[in-house]
Amino acid sequence: MAEVAISDAQERSAESPALAGLAAAEAPRAPAFIVTIYGDVVEPRGGMLWMGTLIDCCARHGLNESLVRTAVSRLVGAGRLEGVRIGRRSYYRLSEAARSEFREAARLLFAPPPVPEDWLLCLSEGLRDIDLPLPWARLAANIALAPNRDDLMPVDGILMRAKQLDGHGDLAVLAADRWSLPEVAGAYGDFLASHGGLRDLLARNVTLSPEVALALRLRLVHDYRHAALSDPRLPRAAYPQDWPAEEARNLFVCAYVGLSKAAEAHVGAEFLSPEGHLAPHNGETERRLFQLRREAAG
């Protein structure tokens, strides 16, 4: 018994810096964090989760039961969650619209597309009367510019492909103004400051309990997703030399992979759907990890 007690105490001591980091961090907004839980854990395993599991999971992040129930109610009202009652228990899943949105976010998190090399220019008098969808930016009343990306939302008008000529103008100054790049850099900086300690934690092979590993991974995904989705993903020449996106990406990839074995054990043990416990892992979660491991090795 004494040996078990010592082992437990050592594990709690090893976890304490990680737990302290979670405790010190500002609690996330409940609706957005619940969507993160569904996108990272629930959706790839079938999509439905018991409210009690959701409440327990959110409690680790400073979100009490009242906040969670209110957030779920608002997400249902906004058409982002759908609920079903089975016996005395309520279960929720992402709506089709929310699933489609997170599938796009998941692609950016787990299989990011290559950095674009050039631009698209749109000329149209119709641009004067519309709010441009991101990442389009207005250069003049009838001229808009966007990175040439496969996932770009089109706008009506004459489209031209453009490439900057070296030595002509300061593209980084234009980009910083049109796409609010200082704010995006701030989001990446906040992510690195909040999660940078995971590098040391994982490098020392500290044994984390499954519950703590999942809590750390969920916050990692939540904060990185916020930063990455705010990034317009422009050609590299449009960013300053000290752009923090690559460092943030490397941290996300290494930490996600390093936390996942223990984190997924907690999912399999504690997360309940109408059919019972969610699977610790399946084809979709293995595919995500394979992509990240390949990226880390490359």
TrEMBL record:
Tree of life domain: Bacteria
InterPro entries the UniProt entry points to: PaaX-like_N, PaaX_C, PaaX_trns_reg, WH-like_DNA-bd_sf
Transcriptional repressor PaaX-like N-terminal domain location: 30-97
PANTHER family from the UniProt entry: PHENYLACETIC ACID REGULATOR-RELATED TRANSCRIPTIONAL REPRESSOR (PTHR30319), TRANSCRIPTIONAL REPRESSOR PAAX (PTHR30319:SF1)
All copies of domain Transcriptional repressor PaaX-like C-terminal, residue ranges: 179-267
Organism: Salipiger mangrovisoli
Record-linked Pfam families: PaaX, PaaX_C
This protein's name: ArsR family transcriptional regulator
Lineage, top ranks: Bacteria, Pseudomonadati, Pseudomonadota, Alphaproteobacteria, Rhodobacterales
